[in-house]
Design brief:
The chain has 360 residues and is mainly alpha-helical. The chain has helices at residues 7-27, 33-40, 43-57, 62-104, 113-139, 145-165, 175-193, 211-233, 236-240, 272-288, 311-316, 321-347; strands at 298-299, 302-303. The chain has a two-stranded antiparallel sheet with strand order 1-2.
């Protein structure tokens, strides 16, 4: 079988992981002891299955993986939506945790955790400001009104939401959360414009890979997966295990080895959401690591491989309107969701109690 390196090798790994975690999601979809055992046990069998699936993909034709790539291109949008929700939740939690640290600390003023919050927000806003200037310089020329509109809408929306988060309408709003959302929206704006196929308005249209896209994408995906694992297990002890036990659960012999619980003693659990997120992440990473490429499966009858096409042509496969619109819509949804978290308590104050008091 052909063994093409590059993009199609990434698709093979992604396909295997998506298939594996998809199967695990089906096996753990119910709250059962079998689901708990499937998630926590059979490690040797899982490793052998993964290796077997990976070897099997070597016999798959590139045209099959090309179909998988197009499937991943559009289903990755679902992961981006979940990622946005988790990112906003992370930004709120970040602020709340540091405020809790400040209340526990004996240091007053800006030298404590409040100073760290303001400093982090300032750095994020400064980075966003620099990003807006660079976006106008590289993408917002007078011949590119559409790009200018997207950049301007991003800037205006971020400023409005930041002001709103500091107003009486949203007393629960925080500057740090707004700064984090602003920075992510600015990155999505850059990533979308860098994916547009118009050479006259995209100076990076022939750059094969963007290190910034990969680094930021992996960082945000890591935060999302960490949040997913935390939320799926409800408590940290279920994720990393607990070293302590109640007095009634302590063994009489402290040197006795701990044994794995028997099947009858195992609690019923459901892990389908965690595995579904992992499958969605595998689909998304296949796009992220290949720059949302549209590289053909064959060129002149030869399987696509590194060296088969030159750098100029290879770079052109990483840009396109589908990738552009996926990222633009993701940015709009990110800003809309964050605005809803700010406005919902005020708009629905007569219908639902959010635990937030208004001063007017």
């Amino acid at each position: 079988p052909s063994l093409p390196p590059g993009a199609f090798s990434i698709y093979r790994f992604s396909f295997v992981l998506a298939l594996f975690f998809g199967a695990m999601a089906l096996l753990t979809c119910g709250t059962t002891k079998f689901g708990a055992r499937a998630h926590r046990g059979f490690w040797i069998a899982k490793i052998c299955l993964l290796l077997s699936l990976l070897v099997t993909t070597l016999f798959l034709d590139n045209s099959v993986l090309q179909g998988y790539r197009e499937f991943a291109r559009y289903t990755s949008f679902a992961f981006l939506l979940l990622q946005i929700l988790l990112l906003i939740d992370f930004a709120y939690s970040w602020n709340e945790r540091w405020l809790a640290y400040d209340e526990e600390s004996d240091v007053d003023g800006l030298c404590g955790w409040k100073g760290a919050i303001l400093g982090s927000a300032a750095l994020l806003y400064l980075g966003s400001l620099v990003g807006w200037v660079l976006l106008y310089i590289h993408f917002g020329s007078s011949e590119c009104p559409a790009q200018q509109t997207i950049i301007s809408l991003t800037l205006i929306a971020c400023v409005v939401l930041s002001v709103l988060s500091c107003s009486k309408i949203a007393p629960h709003g925080t500057l740090l959360t707004s700064a984090a959302v602003t920075a992510y929206a600015t990155f999505l704006c850059y990533s979308a414009l860098a994916s547009h196929p118009d050479d006259g308005c995209n100076p990076f249209s022939h750059r094969r890979h963007s290190a910034l896209d990969i680094v930021v994408g992996l960082l945000v995906a890591s935060i999302s997966l960490a949040g997913t694992a935390w939320n799926a297990t409800s408590t940290k002890n279920q994720v990393i295990g607990s070293d302590s036990a109640s007095p009634n659960e302590q063994p009489l012999d402290p040197n006795a080895e701990k044994e794995a619980p028997a099947y009858d003693e195992m609690e019923e659990e459901s892990w389908w959401y965690y595995h579904l997120m992992m499958a969605a992440c595998a689909l998304y990473l296949s796009m992220l690591l290949t720059g949302w490429s549209t590289e053909p499966a064959y060129i002149d009858g030869v399987p696509t491989a590194v060296g088969t096409i030159d750098t100029y042509d290879a770079a052109s496969y990483s840009v396109g309107l589908p990738s552009f619109w996926v990222k633009v819509v993701s940015q709009w949804i990110c800003l809309l969701l964050y605005s809803w978290t700010l406005l919902a308590p005020y708009l629905l104050r007569d219908h639902r109690d959010f635990g937030i008091e208004f001063d007017f």
